[in-house]
Amino acid sequence: MDSAIKINAEKENQKTVLKESYHSAPYKLTYYGSPTFHEHLEMIIMSASPGVMDEDKLTIDVHVKEAAELKLFTQSFNKVHPMKIGAVQETQIQMERNAIFHYISHPITPFKDSIFLAKNEIHMDKDAVLIWGDIICSGRVHMKESFVFSQLHSLTKIYKDNKLIFIDNQFLSPAKQPIQKMLFFEGYTHQATLLFSSSFAKDLKVELDEILVQDYEDITYGFTQAANDVVIFRALGNNGELLYDFLLMLGQLCWEFSQHKIEELNPKREVIEEETAEEVPLEVPIKKKAAKKAFKKAESIKKLEVIAE
Q1: Strand 219-227 relative to strand 230-237, pairing
Q2: By residue range, what is the domain housing residue 15?
Q3: In whole angstroms, how far apart are CA 289 and each of 98, 215, 265?
Q4: Tens of pLDDT along 103-143?
Q5: Cβ distance 45 to 75 under 8 Å?
Q6: Contact call for residues 12 and 67 (beta carbons, < 8 A)
Q7: CA atoms of 199 and 129, how far apart (whole Å)
Q8: Measured on CA atoms in the order 200, 206, 209, 211, is the torsion positive or negative?
Q9: What is the DSSP string of the chain?
Q10: Sorting pLDDT into bands at 50, 70 and 90, what band is 68?
Q11: How far is Cα of residue 206 from the mean position of the Cα atoms in its chain?
Q12: Quick check: 283 pLDDT over 70?
């Protein structure tokens, strides 16, 4: 089955609104909570299907216009059923000046003999901000289906001002690769990736060096600046929900950090704190404040504190 999802987000009177949208069966696109609760726009992709079937093709098209802020969510794990030919998901993202796009999807769960290709192509203005996360599961772990899928290929390309600046190309074929050894899953069952692309990626990396200094019992992680405008974060674990919450926490940190940096670069815009409703002076050390605020606001931090050593 061929399906499509289209989103067009635009800034109107200091608020991001949905200007155009489209979805076809079995997918549905709807607001994530109240559309008037935030100044940014939050949407969720839902599905009436039990999962991805053989020869399915999903096309996702997202356009985030100038200064618009969009958070896109998914409903549940993306289950990929047994196949003979394979299924494809293609995502095209267009981001204009000062746009912020946050998309962290639930884990992909490939069943036995499944074949799946995920192609993501992101075109950004030099002043846009991308927060992009995904998680790959080894399969239905509790049904003893770890690493028995046929093939999983995830390809993500980021273009800035029409110039390719980053490629993340993961091709997994358990029958042909030492999938559980070094440089692959290393004994874990889930792998998470978070990409942050922005002109101030270097500043974020400096903050992460100070903030992410704690070890966690059930998660192994690392991060690096992969390009001038890209920071990549990888994590390994054995619990998809835990890794998803961990990425959401990091994504919220990146979101808060980005908003403050944009305000820093555009001092004419009024900055309002949620509780004090007072203008924040620009001499405040915004980067560190934003990062700490994000950690406090993230609900998933409670789970991480429980497993911390």
Answers
A1: antiparallel
A2: 2-307
A3: 21, 22, 16
A4: 999 999 999 999 999 999 999 999 999 999 999 999 999 99
A5: yes
A6: no
A7: 8
A8: negative
A9: -EEEEEEEEEEETTEEEEEEEEE-TTEEEEESS-TTS-SSEEEEEEESSSSB-TT-EEEEEEEE-TT-EEEEEESS-EEE---SS-EEEEEEEEE-TT-EEEEEPPPEEEPTT-EEEEEEEEEE-TT-EEEEEEEEE-S-GGGT-TT--SEEEEEEEEEETTEEEEEEEEEE-TTTS-TTSTTTTTT-SEEEEEEEESTTHHHHHHHHHHH----BTTEEEEEEEEETTEEEEEEEES-HHHHHHHHHHHHHHHHHHHHHHHHHH-TTSPPB-TTT--BPPTTS-HHHHHHHHHHHH-TTHHHHHHHB-
A10: very high
A11: 21
A12: no
The two tokens of residue 200 are 């101030």
Give the chain's domain count: 1
Are residues 230 and 162 in contact, defined by beta-carbon separation less than 8 angstroms?
Answer: no
pLDDT of residue 297: 42
How far apart are alpha carbons 31 and 40 in whole angstroms? 12
Cα–Cα distance measured from residue 232 to residue 225, given in angstroms and rounded to the nearest whole number: 6
Q: Under a CB-based contact definition with an 8 Å cutoff, are residues 179 and 171 in contact?
A: no
- As a whole number of Å, the end-to-end CA separation of the chain is 47
Query: Exposed, middle or buried: residue 112 (CB in 10 Å: 0-12, 13-18, 19+)?
Result: middle
